[in-house]
Amino acid sequence: MNVKFYAREGKIDARIQICLIHDRTHTLKVTTKHTIPKNAWDKSNQQVKEIFEGADQLNEMLLQKKLEVLKQYRTLHQQGVTEWTDLSHRLKSFIKTGKTEYHSVKSQELHMYMGEAINRFLKAREVEYKPETNRKYEVLAIVWNHFETHLKRQVSLNKLSYTDMEEFRLYLIKERKNRNDTVYKMLAALKCVLRWLIQNDYSINPKCLELGQKVKVKNEIVTLSEKELKQLQKVKLKKELKPIRDCFLFQVFTGQRYSDMQQLSPDQINNNNWEFQSVKTGKDMLVPLVGWGSTAYNVASVHQFCFPKYVPQYFNRAIKTICREAGITEMVKLKRYSGGKTITINKPKCDLISSHTARRTCVSLLLEKGVPPTVVMKLTGHSSIQTMMRYERTTNDSLIQAFTSVK
Environment class of residue 326 by beta-carbon count within 10 Å: exposed (0-12), middle (13-18) or buried (19+)? Predict the structure, then answer.
């Protein structure tokens, strides 16, 4: 057994985590109650930097905790507790409470309902998750409650079956009219909850984890062309709509999410670079505001690098109106899938624009201009090229132009 410490960074500060490494395939991370400034952690020495007040006492406390955990690990082994699932549960309980007694959740919660189980999962993980992730599971809890209302019965955790999972999948498709990609995400979130319950010794039928939902790897998406961007820049707007147009353009020429654009502040601008921590992922980001990004710099400077704050729903309604006034009204046909059905959407492009269209447009145009995918990934902060390439949209004009230039 090896014990290490890490700092999990949040928006303002960082939480110290204790990591137990049993072997290459069995590890356990537990977030402690200790918080420190984000720049106070010494990664190489796994301790708080000495220049910070109270570092000596906290480092001594961490060392003591490490010794206590190793002692408890040896004690459990002597008692015959060697199976990792049981061992990790007991050590986690010891770290959280300091008590050596351990009571199996399995024997305590025989008749818990699924809705309560989802809420218990969320309560246990909400400190570690970003607000957007927490919201995903809050929505799951609401939808599951609606599902049980539809069934006219509650589903007990220890009686949850593959059939119940399949009924939930069909409910999403038939009753809620969700598309396949939404169903896929909802089931993925539910299975994440079930895996957490299994890890915490709740009785779950493992067959429930086998349910899947096929989804088209890459949906058709809507992006703006450079011509349409110029129309958007030149259109004359009412005073209250101009800042919204500027916010959207800033996203287009930085490739960042709506939540990150809304947190822009003057202190984040350094030598024509925008340096910030992503609201969704917590990653440290750097966006050059030169060249392609110079338009973003010019737009943001008008607002002293601090955009007005908008509710996303209002922003998305307004940007549709702005695009309509800019003449971005070409009819667009998209295909979506719900169960075995193909849904055809045929609308003016302006009615399909949202804040996220800006990020997609940035990726699509940069790739079209020959910027390497790995460089675009660095800009957008995507963790995999497959995820980032879902935003790529090669137009017919681009295809024709590319073939014309090849001799």
Answer: buried
The phi and psi torsions of 21 (rounded to 5 degrees) equal -110, 105
CB 329 within 8 A of CB 348: yes
CATH 1.10.443.10 positions along the chain are: 226-405
Residue-wise pLDDT tens digits, 303-341: 999 999 999 899 999 999 999 999 999 999 888 777 777
Residues of each domain in the chain carrying CATH 1.10.150.130:
108-210
Alpha-helix runs per DSSP H in 276-354: 294-302, 312-325
Q: Is 344 helix (H, G, I), strand (E, B) or coil?
A: strand
What is the distance between the alpha carbons of residues 311 and 239, in angstroms, rounded to a whole number? 18
What are residue 12's phi and psi, to 5 degrees? Answer: -110, -45
Q: What angle do CA 357, 360, 363 make, to 5 degrees?
A: 150
For 6, phi and psi rounded to 5 degrees?
-135, 165
335, with CB counted inside 10 A (0-12, 13-18, 19+), is: exposed
Q: Note the CATH number of domain 108-210.
A: 1.10.150.130
Q: Does residue 254 contact residue 274 with C-beta atoms inside 8 Å?
A: yes
Class of domain 226-405: mainly alpha
- The C-alpha atoms of residue 375 and residue 388 are separated, in whole angstroms, by 11
Average pLDDT over every residue of 116-130: 84
As given in the structure block, the two tokens for residue 93 are 């309980």
